[in-house]
Amino acid sequence: MIRKAVIPAAGFGTRFLPASKSQPKEMLPIVDTPTIQYVVEEAVAAGITDILMIIGKGKRAIEEHFDRNFDLEQELEGKGKEAELAMIRRVSSIANVHFVWQKELNGLGDAVSYARCHIGDEPFALLLGDTIVESDSPVTSQLLQVFERYQESVVALEEVPMERVSRYGIMSGRSVAENLYMIDDFIEKPDMDEAPSNLAIAGRYIFTPEIFDAIAEVPPGKNNEIQLTDAMRLLVKTRAMYGWRFQGARYDIGNKLDFIKTNLVFGLKRPDMGDDLRAFIRELVGPPQV
Predict the structure, then answer these.
(1) CA gyration radius for the chain?
(2) Distance (Å, rounded) from C-alpha 229 to C-alpha 207?
(3) Model-level pTM?
(4) How far is CA 274 from CA 87, 162, 184, in A?
(5) For a surface tag, which of 124, 253, 280, 283 has the fewest beta carbons within 10 Å of its beta carbon?
(6) Which residues pair with 200 in a beta bridge?
């Protein structure tokens, strides 16, 4: 059984300046819920309630979000706002959330290495804190099922258009079953004519603890940082690694345009505002041009 999950959330989020100067990008809301809460909800839905977050300078708001706010609770209780009270109490009790600080921003691989003491010799789930994934069953649950069968690391894969492969880390490997691949390498942001596939790393992973040794061995890569993909490339040379092409939608909250698109998608699904928002968009766009 996978008992623990790791959520890295230490980056500055410079693409969201000035909003991210004092507000973690992971706390930017999708409608009315912080992005990182969706990530925690996915882990919990997969049966994982022991969660370690890797945070950095300026991320104290994440800690406060998952802690209790007794003053706010008292205010809501005094005003009889029972629904709101239950909602915020659930946030602070949904999981056993721990925090560790990445002392120096030195890449995603380095951030993951800070989880070593907490994870120990266990396999664990890794969920990126600025990526929301929607599917009929939680993608982390799908990865857990693959891990339970093969007992090796598993990476979520998203099929992307070939003309966009240069934006992603792309898998090289062979199909071993429907939607399941045996990975032999990863190519970071390849040109379209050099890409071994159109299956991109999608921000969800199950790792065996050997990933920590691989992270410790890799030299600094792009931007002189410790890259998780480089560690994965090293690990796959000695251990089997699988890729699971999930069915669903991934929302990357790491850039402004996708952030706005995600808010629209989630807002349109909301029964309390979907119809009004749809009408507003039609009014804003105007009638089709003939």
Answers:
(1) 20
(2) 13
(3) 0.91
(4) 21, 33, 44
(5) 283
(6) 158, 170
Q: How many helices (H) and strands (E) does the chain have?
A: 11, 13
* Tens of pLDDT, residues 123-141: 999 999 889 999 889 999 9
Q: Are 100 and 118 in contact (CB under 8 A)?
A: yes
Strand locations in the chain (E): 4-9, 29-30, 33-34, 50-55, 96-101, 124-127, 131-134, 153-159, 169-177, 180-188, 199-207, 241-245, 249-252
CA distance 35 to 240: 32
Q: Over the stretch 3-43, which tens digit does the pLDDT of each residue have?
A: 999 999 887 778 888 888 888 889 999 999 999 999 999 99
User: H or E element: which one contains 148?
Assistant: helix 139-150
